[in-house]
Amino acid sequence: MTAVSLVARCVHGLEPTVAAEILRLRLGTITHIGHREVHFRASRSPAPRGLALGLRTADDVFLLAAQGPDAGTSRKGAAALAGLADAADLAALERLRHDHGGPGALTGVEVSASFLGRRTFTRYDVEDAVGHALAARLGVGYHSRRGGGAPPPGHSGWRVTLDGERATLLLRIGERPLHRRAYKRRSVPGTLHPPLAAAMVAMAGVEPGDTVVDPCCGAGTPLIEAARQRPTARLLGFDLAWEAVTAARENAAGLPVAVARADAGRLPVPDGVADRVLANPPWGGQVAPGGLLAASAGRWWAEVRRVLVPGGTAVVLLPGVAELPLGIRHGLTPVHLQRVRVAGAEAFLVRWTAPRAG
Q1: Domains contained in the chain, CATH given
Q2: Residue 245: pLDDT band by 50, 70, 90 thresholds?
C-alpha cells in the first residue's frame, strides 16, 4: 500500500483546527504543521475517493508534488525553481489526483505562488518559471496570472510555497479551491470566509438537534456551514439589511436554515432559546453597526446573553481583544481565544459560555 503525501492550506491561525479535522475524518497522519498549511500522510486506499475534498476548515487540499531547498532572495533563485517541475512525477500525480476525487488528465497549467520574507523577485516570477516548465513537460498550455485574468476552464491548479527553508510544489486535487463553495451564489459586504465559518461551527461544538442563532447573519455562511456539519440542528439567522436577508435565503436554499429581518439588539426569539450563537458582528470595519447596535455595542452582548440557554456557547469573531471586557460585563465568560488573520488583518475567534442555572 503506497503512502501519499497531501497538504491542506488554510487561513493563518486555523492550522490546529484543520489538523483536528483531518484526524477526525481519519484522512491520515499529521507529518508537519507550518505557516498556513498542514501536511499529512494518507494511504491511497482504503480512504473513500474524494474524502479529502470534504474538508470544511481548509482553504484547499493538494498532493505534494516535489520539494527542494528554498530559492533564496535573488531573481536567479526564482528561475531555478523550474527544477521543481522537473522533479515531479507527473504520471503518478495524475493518477493520484483522480484516485482522490479530482479530474483525470492534467490539461493546461496555472500556478499560484507565495513566500515568506522579502525577496528581489515577485510571485509572478516564480509562477512563470514553474508554470512554463510544467506546461512544457505536459505538452499543454500555460496561463500566467500576471494579466489578472481567470485561467481557461480545465486548467490544473498548482501552487509553489517558499518558507525560508523549503520550496514546495503542490497539485490541487479538485477542479477549484475548496473555499469556493458552490452555495455562495450571493455575497454582501463583510461576508465571512467559508472555512473560517466552518471553524466557528467546530469551535462551538454544535450538536444534532441544537438551536443555533446568528444575530447578524450576513450572507448566511456560518449557518450554512452548520447545516453541512449538523443537518438536524435548528438554524435561525437574522439581519437588519434586506440585502443580507435576501442573499442568505438564496445561499441557503434547500437547507434547514430560517432567515428573517431583525435588529440584532432585539431579536424576535424567547429568552434562553439558543444552545449556540455564531456571530461575525458589524464592528465598523467593512460594515457599520445599525439599528440599536449603532447606539450601544453593549446591547449586542446583552442580547447574546439573553438568548443563550444556561451553559450555552457563543463563538464570536472579534477584531481585537479590546472587546473582551464588554462581553464579560454582560455575564459571558471567554473560555478559548484563537488568533487568525482575515483578509490580511488580525482577528480573534473567541468561544464564550453563559452562566449555568443555579
Answers
A1: 3-172 (3.30.2130.30), 194-353 (3.40.50.150)
A2: very high
pLDDT in tens, 20-58: 999 999 899 999 999 899 999 986 554 567 788 999 999
Give residue-wise pLDDT tens across range 340-353.
Answer: 998 788 999 999 99
Q: What is the C-alpha to C-alpha distance for residues 242 and 176, in angstroms, rounded to an integer?
A: 31
Contact 46/38 with Cβ under 8 angstroms?
Answer: no
Residue 314 φ then ψ, to 5°: -120, 140
DSSP assignment of 309-323 equals EEEEEEEEEESSGGG
* Total residue count of the chain as it appears in this document: 358
- The answer to whether 39 and 161 have CB atoms below 8 angstroms apart is no
CA nearest to 266, candidates 236, 287, 242, 291 = 291
Q: Are 51 and 24 in contact (CB under 8 A)?
A: no
Q: Is 67 helix (H, G, I), strand (E, B) or coil?
A: strand
Buried b (16+ CB within 10 A) or exposed e, 255-269: bebebeebbbbebeb
Split at pLDDT 50, 70, 90, the class of 202 is very high
